Amino acid sequence: MASSESQLLRPRFGYGGAPVPPFFRRSLRFPFWTSVHTNTHPISKNHLSLRVKMQPEADMMMKPVSDNKIPHVLTVAGSDSGGGAGIQADLKACAARRVYCSTVITAVTAQNTVGVQGVNIVPEDFVAEQLQSVLSDMHVDVVKTGMLPSLNIVKVLCQFLTKFPVRALVVDPVMKSSSGDVLSGSSVLTGFLGELLPMTDIVTPNIKEASVLLGGVPLKSVSDMRTAAKLIHDLGPRNVLVKGGDLPNSLDSVDVFFDGKEFYELCSPRVNTRNSHGTGCTLASCIAAELAKGSSMLSAVKTAKHFIDVALDYSRDLAIGSGVQRPFDHFLKLKNINQSSGRQNMFNPNDLLLYAVTDSTMNRKWGRTIAEAVKAAVEGGATIVQLREKDAETRDFLDASKVCLEICRSYGVPLLINDRLDVALACDADGVHVGQSDMPVRLARSLLGPEKIIGVSCKTPEQAHQAWIDGADYIGCGGVYPTNTKANNRTIGLDGLKEVSQASKLPVVAIGGINLSNARAVMEIGEPKLKGVAVVSSLFDRACILTETRNLLALVS
Ligand SMILES: Nc1ncnc2c1ncn2[C@@H]1O[C@H](COP(=O)(O)OP(=O)(O)O)[C@@H](O)[C@H]1O
Ligand SMILES: Cc1ncc(COP(=O)(O)O)c(N)n1
After folding, report:
1. 3-state helix, strand, coil in the chain (%, to 5)
2. Does ipTM exceed 0.90?
3. Per-residue pLDDT for 471 more than 90?
């Protein structure tokens, strides 16, 4: 089988050749080998780097089929009673990626954080019955497979995939659990090699599974993973992702992607955690979800890898179960329940580290769309973004906000809207930032509900205290230095910032004239409540936003 993107996205629903939206077309001017630095969940200050070779035309996003068709992934996998892996991980991954997920259960396992205590295989005719029910009715876009515990189940699945072709088939060749317990016996290998892999669009073995597929050759290095990816590709799948989560002696977690022509190494710092049970299932489901939405294969793989990084980093110390195979949180929500108010808050104060505030005048000056500016900033490592569009038409602002939100979500970066609660609500942004003469915080909270982030500009300890009483999440304090971006804005200097930060019960981000030459001095006032710097001109009034963001991030981290 050929390994082209166009083949993968078979135009069953008629959008394989859809034109690229202008935003994506313009954003594809990457150098050949590029290092895309993205921030992890800012609980840690690690920054990921995806060492990937970008392919401009192949890495574009495709337009969804129609506005009404919900992207749909069917997972054919086993149930994990502990909820960390298998069907449960697949459902959570698809929900987190906003894709519908149906399920065909191949086995029920009794499993927890210690290991697998029992496996009950579903008879193949009942697997067939489930496949018939879903595939005959529900317009599945992508099928993702996990635990396929018997050769007959593999065969039944292949028959159904021939009868009901789908746009893409993602195969996670699950063989053992992370605890080392066998989930699929060696008999299924015949089915994989003879039937399933040749139908597969991407197969995602970990290093042990890659070794089994290749008859037992050990994989000990990234170079071995590359060789294995090539050899597995020869078995029929159009794309191969050899996952390096278990690669010994590696500080990084490196996955090797091979599309039949090019190799790509996707690299991120290894998260030191026990909460990694279900990463393989999640990664494959995430790839399936992105493909169902219309992404290219490389883009789907990159998004999935980034999703895992953010979720693992967030979940590194989640206490669930007494064993070492602990699950992680796909929704980044479990730790943020504010017990006292019952309010569930997604806000993490460390998100304030490098806060990018857009400016339409600067974007016009440099000939950029707001989305291009935001994309460059988050690629450079901005940890939170605020859209501040004082003179935009509502419709234009809303459209731009939706595009920016999509970009920010794919990087796990919160997006706030300045002042315009209506726009924030309409696009489901993560929150708002208001000034002292904008919507009062208390009203904003009642309109936005408990989950959204609300920030408020404060110059004095009294305003900071009021912000806390009214239910804000953070305060923006400044202008620290004189600036042109805001007329008649009194400068409070480092002394004023220190005074407000000492008094504030809320996390503080400094704003006003902050740039590469003074950002360090700001952070060095050493106030625990001061979590970062917010910048406008020093990112957006510059030729290369991405480079400026990286440089500033390095200074404040
Ligand atoms: N500790 C970790 N830190 C960062 N990424 C990890 C870690 N463990 C696994 N991953 C990533 O999770 C995904 C699943 O990999 P792996 O754990 O090797 O698969 P499996 O769960 O099938 O054994 C890969 O993208 C891998 O790089
Ligand atoms: C039902 C089921 N499917 C897949 C896995 C693999 O997940 P992991 O490699 O994280 O143990 C599992 N443990 N259980």
Report:
1. 35, 20, 40
2. yes
3. no
